[in-house]
# Entry
Amino acid sequence: MNPIGVFGGTFDPIHYGHLRTAFELWQSLKLAEVRFLPTGNPPHRERTLADAALRVQMVRAAIADQPAFVVDDREVRRAGASYTFDTLSELRVENPQRSLCLLLGMDAFLGLPGWHRWRELFDLAHVVVAHRPGWKAPTQGPLGEIMVDRGTGAVNDLHRSPAGRIYVHAVTQLEISSTELRQIIDAGRDPRFLVPDPVRDIIRDSGCYARPR
Ligand code: ATP
Ligand code: MG
# Structure
């Protein structure tokens, strides 16, 4: 069975940078599926603007016509902080032999040493890093070292074992961020063609990013 891609994020809101990255990784790594996991109450960043239910709804709307993409809302349903370590531990129990690939943008990967039990993540999953505009792969420090130990350029290594490797993959660079989207919308501008139309509809109907006027 092919690997499961695990793609976590606040998705506040989900945009084409997320979707195109997931699609290209799904194709090039021959993933069985990409599982989108919206975070509940993120431990490492300030509050989101759209509530969890709305963020899940936007992800659902964005991936509805892509069968290999699925939403997993377990972090949203869990009370309190959600750690990637806990989520991957659960997925590992549910899929004992299966290859799991944690999909991260380079910016997220660079922050990995700040994550709860980060070194143990490699016992649970592979880490696949997508290039993002303006971010360089680490060559020094704990991440530089772990890249030397665990890095691979072979997709097969992600299929052969269930966890433990790091694979860096270039994806089409779409310089879109949720932060910038929230600013655009708050300024009264239209996010069209940066997010799927059904997501744009939810944003407009809910008014979730608009400043009260
Ligand atoms: P924010 O600006 O609020 O931080 P974001 O656009 O970075 O939002 P997140 O939900 O924080 O989105 O990101 C989830 C995951 O998607 C992270 O691993 C991040 O690196 C990756 N990602 C976000 N935007 C892009 C993009 N434009 N291209 C590739 N990967 C991306
Ligand atoms: Mg981010």
